[in-house]
């Protein structure tokens, strides 16, 4: 039963390099600890060549020119570990987290799906590279041998069954000790002159047992590549979150968009590895200065302006909700850019946190004879751009409210449903007619099916927003003369019908009561019909709209 | 004729008499095509004939009978003064399109759309995008001119901001909608826009819109007081109120009290001013229809 191990050398460095790829060609050292006692935790290969090693103090390495220093970020390491798990999970469901930098997965039964073992190993390394991690991948007959080979050999290694001891023999004994608790054994081996695993494997097991006990026997078995154990699979949580902690605060949108683009690429690659998409993106920005926190939702979500305590007042959160599951980092980036342009955080940014809510991808196939409809990705971008032009509350679909109050409607987020053949009930004729989905309805179709009977044509009312105040003179209880300075209208009312009295919400503070009149006035271009309204509570006359 | 010699310039500086061509026009075209400057020029007789656009019902039977419907991939303009029935036709077309399950967009320049009238007309709001233009402060300057946008709120000084007019907003929004694609019907409501502002819309904008919808199934529909799109409109229809006073003639007697009177509707007359869909002179082709007022 073959196993594969993915190992990330210099894991703290790689976790940081996922967000800052340009540092890969430079010398980089990751330091940790409080200010006077900061020590190097991990370095990359360039820094190692420059003479920088883990354990050195910050003072010692400050003399090195061209060395980039970064503080250790546990959150970025957690994100890198999650990405590593996603990489393994995209190949096999049986995945063991042997360490934050080591993942072992069971390859049993994968050969018919992904090809021979070397091909699978190469695909694993490639997938990890897409996720921003340079890894060593090894395949062996047991998990421990695979892990040792991944730690010891760089690149892709495949150890055939039965040749474990031969292949592992050239490795130094240090690969057996991944944590500092077993350093005493390493010192013992060093005193004995044992440098390679083949030296350890050649020791007599009884004598080794007498000196080092079961631990020594276990290490020798590891050196032989003859251990056998059961894999302990983990079920990683579906948490997709990426973080960047910035060295310097960001004050401009363009560099922020650059970093957001990287985070989104990583998130989308991780989601793609798990065959998922997202319908909700949460952006959390940690601000440098104390500023009122704005926690709100984009695209029709419920916006909340919160002013919590001072500790949370440095965070700026935006939530991007999408009508359909998407997986396009460019679309996400543009949407976030447009939203941040409309709602700037208000203070320099020191930390960026981006999370995606995973959902199953949209599985829809449009019909051949369905009417055209906008692509969801393009539509979202278009709506966001239009919202940037006219305002977020001025674009969308609408819903009528259950009230007789004028302007009794509210704006909703525009999300046209995909077509489903529905049975339209004609309430007037009390019979049902099927609406043809095809756009090729020609004039040969019966008018009753098209609903284009001119008997049903409705006289439309055009609303004046805001209403126009007018001065009205009454005669015999009817409006007789009207003066409207705004529309340069003054004269006799030729015809009037009304009043049509209505009122509502009198049980609330915002009660209303009005008399409506339909009037005809001589205009320059002919006779114009208006709806004239008298507010019975305030006593004002207004022109509400015109019939057209 | 058959012995007409042709001059060949195959050898520079030397003219050679060649044999008579079997088909003179063919040879002339070949020679013309061989000339570098005229290589891409096609003779008029070989120009591609523009296909007849597909027509969709407008929702008004009389207009469909008059024009054959609304052409897809073309700009249709309906003009007329206030209370002439333009908006009624717009709502009818909107209702017909949403009932065909098409996604529609209304660019409302003067924010005059009445949802209750639309609901009475049968518009499906779930498939209609309503863009309400209006005065709004915009930061002046293009992104290219100011590549770095500050993240600080209110960083833009008042000098960098300007009031964007609804017409400018509408043109930008229409551009975005047409470029996005997928809409069955895009409507621009210029009904209440002052004449001088409507006429100030550059012709290039209309050309751009026309090019954007060309070869797409989108119907671009504009209502205005006077013709604005000029030659870009494939179909120009003028509507006017016909015998408006007769609408309420039954109840408009001087003696009857006002509350017993009722606005019954509008009698509308439509006239085709221009139609590029057929090669015959338009004009003096009219149709009349009636709209009714409904509660709502």
How would you describe this structure in keywords?
heterodimer; A: 548 residues; alpha+beta; Dna Ligase, domain 1; 4 domains; six-stranded antiparallel beta barrel; five-stranded mixed β-sheet; 23 strands; 28% helix; elongated; B: 296 residues; alpha/beta; Rossmann fold; eight-stranded mixed β-sheet; two-stranded antiparallel sheet; 7 helices; disordered N terminus
Can you walk me through this structure?
The complex is a heterodimer of chains A (548) and B (296). Chain A has 548 residues and is α+β, with helices and mostly antiparallel strands. Chain A has four domains: 3-75 and 92-224, no CATH class; 238-389, DNA polymerase, Y-family, little finger domain (Dna Ligase, domain 1); 423-456, no CATH class; 461-547, no CATH class. Chain A has helices at 11-17, 45-49, 58-61, 74-89, 111-114, 117-130, 143-152, 164-168, 183-192, 197-202, 205-224, 253-273, 329-342, 376-390, 447-450, and strands at residues 3-7, 27-32, 39-43, 67-71, 95-99, 102-106, 136-140, 156-158, 240-250, 277-287, 295-298, 315-326, 349-359, 395-400, 409-412, 423-426, 431-434, 461-475, 478-484, 489-504, 512-523, 526-535, 541-547. In chain B, the strands form four sheets. An eight-stranded mixed β-sheet of chain B has the order 7-6-10-11-5-12-13-14, with helices on both faces. Chain B has a two-stranded antiparallel ribbon with strand order 1-2. Chains A and B meet through α12, α14, β14, β18 and β20 of A and β3, α2, α3, α4 and β7 of B.
